[in-house]
């Protein structure tokens, strides 16, 4: 029919971009974290690794240092031992010199002891002679002689004492086998056992060491 519009032809509409289906992962995305960690690590300076030649040199130096330290300790020990030995030698030498000085006159003192004994015997006998007989008078000359001998003995004892030689009389003391020589034993009811009641010969000491033991009589009641 003229005068009527003919129907427009059917145009199919197709969108320019067709929607596509998307899939989403439930795990968190660590890509950014890993990248940040890698960047942080890359910023830190990497430790320098010593060359193989350098490490061998250091090891060799350490080995030599240990050997030297051990050598120093050995020499220190030797030095301390040497000092100790030297001090011991000094002490021993001092003791030996003192002993030699103290007992240098030992032989002379032994020979002199007999002279002292003779003076002692002379004084004992002179004292008996000084006793006047019944109705008799004292002998003035004999008394003067006795006093002179006694003074000689006193001076001799004083001189010997200056040089370390002393006599000892153990009468009334306990018997000491280191200082006394028992020549006989006898019972004494009024005295204790092992008591020195008689001195046959006095003893002598040189600087504290017994030069001659005293000969004594000892009480033995049992």
From TrEMBL:
GO biological process, one term: protein folding
GO cellular component: a single term: PAM complex, Tim23 associated import motor
Ranges annotated as biased composition (Basic and acidic residues): 32-47
Compartments it resides in: Mitochondrion matrix
Domain of life: Eukaryota
Keyword Chaperone: yes
Ranges for region Disordered: 1-57
Keywords of this entry: Chaperone, Mitochondrion
CDD domains in UniProt: GrpE
Molecular-function annotations in GO: adenyl-nucleotide exchange factor activity; protein homodimerization activity; protein-folding chaperone binding; unfolded protein binding
Pfam families linked: GrpE (PF01025)
Biased composition (Polar residues): 22-31
Main location: mitochondrion
Free-text function comment from the UniProt entry: Essential component of the PAM complex, a complex required for the translocation of transit peptide-containing proteins from the inner membrane into the mitochondrial matrix in an ATP-dependent manner.
Similarity comment: Belongs to the GrpE family.
Protein name as annotated: GrpE protein homolog
Organism: Microdochium trichocladiopsis
């Amino acid at each position: 029919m003229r005068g009527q519009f003919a129907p427009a032809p059917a145009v199919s509409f197709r969108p320019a971009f067709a929607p596509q289906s998307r899939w989403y992962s439930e795990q968190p995305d660590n890509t950014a974290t890993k990248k940040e960690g890698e960047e942080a690590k890359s910023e830190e300076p990497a430790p320098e690794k010593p060359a193989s030649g350098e490490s061998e040199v250091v090891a060799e130096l350490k080995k030599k240092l240990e050997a030297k330290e051990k050598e120093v300790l050995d020499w220190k020990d030797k030095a301390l031992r040497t000092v100790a030995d030297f001090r011991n030698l000094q002490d021993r030498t001092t003791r030996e010199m003192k002993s030699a000085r103290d007992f240098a006159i030992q032989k002379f003192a032994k020979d002199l002891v007999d002279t002292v004994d003779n003076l002692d015997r002379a004084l004992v006998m002179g004292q008996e002679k000084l006793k006047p007989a019944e109705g008799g008078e004292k002998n003035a000359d004999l008394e003067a002689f006795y006093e002179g001998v006694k003074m000689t003995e006193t001076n001799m004892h004083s001189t010997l004492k200056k040089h370390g030689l002393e006599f000892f009389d153990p009468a009334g003391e306990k018997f000491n086998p280191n200082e006394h020589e028992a020549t006989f034993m006898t019972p004494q009811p009024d005295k204790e056992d092992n008591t020195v009641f008689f001195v046959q010969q006095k003893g002598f000491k040189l600087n504290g060491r017994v030069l001659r033991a005293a000969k004594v009589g000892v009480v033995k009641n049992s």
